[in-house]
Structures are given as C-alpha cells and as structure tokens.
Amino acid sequence: MSVVFDRFLFAFTIASHIVLVTMSIALILLIFFLEYRYLTKKEEIIKDLIKRLKKVFIVSFGIGTASGVVVAVELINLFPGFMTLVSETGVIAIFYAEVFAFFLETILLMIYVYFDGVFKWKYTNIVLSFFVSVGTITSGILITMVNAWMNSPNGFDITSYKDNGIVTGVNPWAPFLTSTTIPEELHVIITTIFTGMMIIASYFVYKYLQSNNEKEKSAYKYVIKISSWINIITILLAGITGSNEISTTLQQQPLKYAAFELNTNPGKALPEILFGTYSNGKVVNGIPIPGLQGFLAQMSTGDTYLPGLSQYPSSEWPPLYVHLTFDSMVVGGVLLGLLLFMIFIYNLMKKDFLKNKFIAYLQIIAGPIALIVYELGWVTDEVGRVPWIVYNVLTIQQAANNSSGVYLPGYFIIAFYIVLIPSTFYIFSRIFNAKPIKEVNKP
Amino acid sequence: MNYVFYIDFAIFSIFATLILTEIMGSILLLLLWNDSKKVVLEYVVPIWEITGTFAVFWVVLSDFAFPSILIPLASIFSAGLLIFLILFVARNASISFAEFFEKKGWLDEKKLYYGYALSSILLGLVVLVIVSTIIGGYGLNLSNYTFNFFSFASNISPWLFILGSLVTAIGFAPIFYNIDKMKKMSMIFVFIGVLISMAFIFIQEKGIPREVLIPLVLTIALPILYNIPQTRNVASNKAFFIAYLSITLFSLNFLVYPTAFGKLSVDSLTTNGTMANAYIIMTLTGLVLLAILLALYTSAVKKSASVLNKIQE
After folding, report:
1. Which residue of A156, A255, A310, B122 shows the fewest CB atoms closer than 10 Å?
2. Strands A277-279, A287-289: parallel, antiparallel or unpaired by DSSP?
3. CA distance A77 to chain B (A)
4. Can you tell me the distance from the alpha carbon of B86 to that of A13, in angstroms, rounded to the nearest whole number?
C-alpha cells in the first residue's frame, strides 16, 4: 500500500512543481525579449513591464527553488533504492551539474534584479537576462537528462547489477547522453516553453480585454504578440519532436509504445485507435483509423512492424489508461495547434486577432488547457514506464520506501502544495498589479 | 589525503558561514528591528537565494562524495529533513513575499520578515542538531539507522555544541552588520561562546587537541579586531568576514575526520575510482564558474549605493 502512496505523493508533488517550472522558464524568456525591445526602442512602458515581471519572476524563482528542494528530498525518502543507484552511477554527476546551472541562474538573477543600473554598460540587462534564461533552461535540460536515463539507462554494468545488485563498470559521463536523451530533450524543452508561454498569453489577453487604459493595452499587446509568435513556432516544433519521440519509444521501449497505442497484438499496417479501453483481450469503444499508426510512428505506410501487448507478460504491462492520456495529449495538442493556426493567419494578414472576441476568449482558456496537455504528456511518459522506475533495471517496488512512516510527511506535503500553488498565483497577480502602469509613469 | 572529503567540507564551511550570517541578521531583526532593519536587509535580501543554492550544492556534493551513507542518513534524519523542508519553504516564501508584498489586512512587510527571521533561526538549529550528530553520533543507532531525539537530548555534549555556536553567532552579529554600540557586547558573547565550545570539544575529543588552536585563535581574534578602531573596517567587511569565517569553520574539520558519527571511518565512506575523478573534475570546473559569478556579484555589491533603495523603487 505504501508503494502506491509513494507513487501518488511523488506524482502529486512533481505535477505541482511543474506548474512553477513552466512559468519560470517562460517568464524569463519573455523578460529577455522585452529587454531586447527596450534596448532597441527605449519605451518607458516596456521598462515598467520588465520591472513588474522581474518581481513576479523572483517570487516564482524563490517558491520554485523551495519546491525543487521538496522534490529532491522526496526522491531520497520515497525511492531510496533509486537514489542509491543514482549516487553510485554518473547520474549523480547530472544532478551535480544542475547545481552549477542553478548558481548561474541564481547569482545573475540577484545581480539583474537587485543591482539594476549598477553596471553602466548598455547591454548589461539583456546579457544578464539572457544568461539567467540559459541557467533556467539548462536546469530543465539537465533534469530531463535524468529522466531520459530512467528510460534508457547506461553507464554501468547492467547485467552484473541485475544479477547481484552491485554497481560496477561505471562510466560517470555516459548518462549525459543516452539513446533517448536527444529526442526527449527536444520535445520536453519545446513543450515546456510552449506551455509557459500559453499561460502567459492567456493572462495577458485577459488583462488586455479587461483594461481601459491605452498605454497598458499597448504594453499587453506587445507581450501577446511575442508570446503568440513563440507559441506558433513551438507548437509546430512540438509536433515534429513529438513524432520523433514516439519513433524513439517504438525502438527503445516497444512495450511502452504498445500500451500507448493499445495494440493488443503485434503486426503491420495496424490502425490508429483513438481512445477506447482494453477489456478481455480486446479494445472496446475505440475509433480505429486504418493504416495510420505506422505512418505516425515512422512516417511510413504499411511495412512498419509494430509491437503488441501480447508479446509481453501482462505483469510487465503498464496501466493501460496511458492510452487515454496519450490520445488526450495528442488531441489537445492538435486543438491548440488549430487555434494557433488561426492566430497565425491573422498575423499573416496583419490583422489583430484580439478584435475577434471569440478567438481572444479561446486564447484565454487555451493556457490552462496547454498546462493540462503538458501534464498529461508527463503522466503518459512516467506511467508508461511502470512497473520500472529505471527501465528494465529497477522496479518501483524495489526502489520504493515501504515504511508507513512516509504517510505523515506525505499528507503534510499534499496540504502544503494545495495551499502553495493557488497562493503563489494570487501573489503573482498582486505583485504584478500592485502599481498600474499609469501610476508608475507619473513623474 | 582524502581530497573528496576536504572539498566537501570546504563547501560545507561556506554554506555554514552563509547560513550563520543570515541567522545573525535574523537575531538582530527580531531583537532590534528599527536599528538593524536597513543594514540587515541590505545584505540579506540579495543573498538569501545564494545561501539556499549553497545548501543544495553541499547536499548534492555529499550525495556524490558519500554514496553509501546517503540512504542511511535519509532514514536517520527523516524527521529532521521534514522539519528542514518546512522551514526552508517558510523562509523562502516569507522573504520573497516580504520583498514585494504590499500591506493587506494584518499581514505586512514586518511580519513577513519576522517569519523569515524565525524560520531561518530554527533552520539553523536543525542544521546544528544534524551536524552535532554527524560529529558525535548522539542519539544514533547505526545498526537499524534510527535517530532517537530523547537519547540525543540526554547528552550534554550536543547542547554545548549548539549553545556555543549560537552564543558565538550572537557575538559575531554586531561585527558582521557593523553595529558600533554593541562592540563590547560582541567581545563578551564570543568569549563565552568559545568557552562553551571548548567544553564541547574537551568532552568530544577527550582532551583539547592541538588542532583546536587555529580555530580558537581565529575566532577570538575577530571581535578583538573589531574593537580596535584601526582594524574595525576590515573586520566588518562582508567579503573579508565571509572568507575569514569560512576558513575558521574549515579548520574544524578534525571534528569529523577521520571519524564521523562517533565511530565510522570517513575514508571507507568516500567515493573512489572513476567516480572520484569525475567528482574532482566537475568540482574544479564548477568552482571556476562559481568564482567568476561571485566576482561579478561582489563587484555589483561594491558599485551599488543602496540595494534597498533599488528594491523599493
């Protein structure tokens, strides 16, 4: 029972933490673009917007750091077997590299926020915001490397470890680049930026529609313009990298792939089954699209051999609801893509999509939807690896802390996040709106 | 020579120094809000995240350095870690909200900074409890990886360690924050703190080892330097103080090397082979990056007239 609780608790924590991470990455990128705008156009309104967003970012960073520490300590407490393997292999070196990315981000952020104007070089702010972004994104890249290693472990003698549980033949650098690292990195970083930017776009469209102040509206419009273009580019890249990611899964983790697609039996020219559930060896209530699966998996028709669940003992199958989360993620992504395609057409025709209230309102609800889609993506990837915590090496059962002592701290952490996330967003809003632009600009 | 241990202890010394400077500031904020607010916040507000990052640095470095002890430690200190987490989150949340939060109802900047100060002091206490256990193994049962607080509390040694550290920190506070009217009190507190700490070392080491001479001289010298008008500015210079205190704490490494937890050989716990090489290569590379970043930060501090004014714009 406590293993189920360990899994639930960690999933809950990381799902909450992800919200702060996506916000932080998108916010600092937005600030960087605004710094570029201010450097070239010297508009006071942009300067003011940067000041307000910097304050929001510092709070997001402070809370995100604390939350990150909670996640790290949870990993040790909930999955001690996993962390033992991590600290005896080169994976700990990835965590260690993360510390230095974190220093890059922290120290430059402190200079950027608290010592604004101290350095007279005119490029100071844009350079600092750039390197803070580099630190933030590098942190994301490094932690994704750990996840890629969990999907395709390397850097030690796996056979020997499985036989006697002792780590030998360690190559400390190997986990930095596994067979799944590049596809996963590309997809995760792009979708993280996309999700954060969609939330930002939603908020600013809402603020734009709410405001009666022309100065404010023009500043918000600029943010909406930047975020919309980033969203259009990243949704396109998310599709391409997502397709690449699924091809990698097909090659590296065929059982996981079979569960994603709910293939009961292996074969060629299998249909793409939209939704549906598995019952008594059959898929029920699904919508089959003949021949599409091979095309989506490897951009080829007919001749791609696709794996099926029946090739593996059912004890090794992941929970098959990953098919539903996978399909929901893809459908959600496609719908968001359609919305962004409409915005792209407006941009192309040099028309203002904000004048179309329907599209504007759709953009407002698209932010939370993007976050749900992003979370579904992570659920699909992580649940798809069950029963393994490190694929084909270490099961969750072997790695978990079976002590009932995890319950009390666990309940505390759940309560903590339930309070933390909404109050953080409330504080964001209060800080951002503390001084409206019209007041700040008064001499 | 066990480089892996010494690197880890050096980073611990810097982290402990940074957290001590925040604890000193927190004590002043709680006791003398009006007199100390400006000087303390000028230092604390831009550095609290760097202290937090050093905490993470030391924890990850220790995971890397001592892989076999990681899980037992997590089990031994599970309650301590939970309390640490709560306080760490409370500290981060209260100070980051305090910086920008505008008064709403009963909640204002002062209360949030008080929250920060209290959680920082308590956080320091948790660290001191853990460190005293690492030194002496008080309350530890290494056969089943448990920690018994009552057994810990029944020993006088860890209390002497905690009390000695806190009293010395109170004595250092006026030096670091340059509060002139407390300069005499600073000397008295440091001397009392040193006496208590010496009692701890006497019990722990069953005598006074000669290695204690360096930290003893360094600790006593600081308030003396502060009380001499010609050297006051040097003693209260923040960069100097941090470097000085880090070196002083580093010189206490004999308390945990070669034996930690009362009876475990540190050499038998440290990583070796290719992992040790990777540890050293990454640490040296990372420290070069860190040195550049800290040089930039120090330069910004020197150039800045008043950080608080910038924040409150």
Report:
1. A310
2. unpaired
3. 6
4. 14
Q: Could you tell me which chain A residue has the CA closest to the CA of B101? A: A431
Would you call B242 helix, strand, or coil by DSSP? helix
Domain ranges of chain A: 2-432
ipTM: 0.86
Phi (first) and psi of residue B140, to 5 degrees: -90, 140
The top-scoring range by mean pLDDT among A261-265, A299-303, B71-75 is A261-265
Do residue A72 and residue B59 have CB atoms under 8 angstroms apart? yes
Which candidate, A230, A158, A164, places its Cα nearest to that of A191?
A: A230
Residues 6+ away with beta carbon under 8 Å from B227: B183, B184, B186, B187
- Residue B304 main-chain phi, psi, to 5 deg: -80, 135
Cis peptide before A387, with omega less than 30 degrees from 0? Answer: yes
- Give Dmax over CA atoms of chain A in angstroms: 74
Nearest-by-Cβ selection for B92 from A63, A76, A93: A63
Model confidence over A281-295: pLDDT tens digits?
889 999 988 888 877
Domain that holds residue B67: 3-312
What are residue A202's phi and psi, to 5 degrees? -60, -50
* Packing angle, helices A91-114 and A80-88, rounded to 10: 90
Least confident of A420-434, B68-82, B124-138: B68-82
Q: What is the biggest distance separating any 2 CA atoms in chain B, rounded to whole angstroms?
A: 59
Q: In Å, how far are A102, A104, A109, B33, B276 from A135, measured between CA atoms? A: 6, 5, 10, 36, 26
> Whole-prediction pTM value?
0.89
Q: Does B302 touch chain A (CB under 8 A)?
A: no
Chain B segment 58-87 residues within 8 A of A by beta carbon are 59-61, 63-64, 67, 70-71, 74-75, 78, 81-82, 84-86
Q: Which of B135, B76, B88 is nearest to A72 (CA)?
A: B88
Q: CA A343 from chain center: how many Å?
A: 23
Domain count, chain B: 1
In whole angstroms, give the CA distance from residue A86 to residue B63.
Answer: 9
Q: How far is A100 from chain B (nearest CA, A)?
A: 6
Give bridge partners of residue A282 from the DSSP assignment: A279
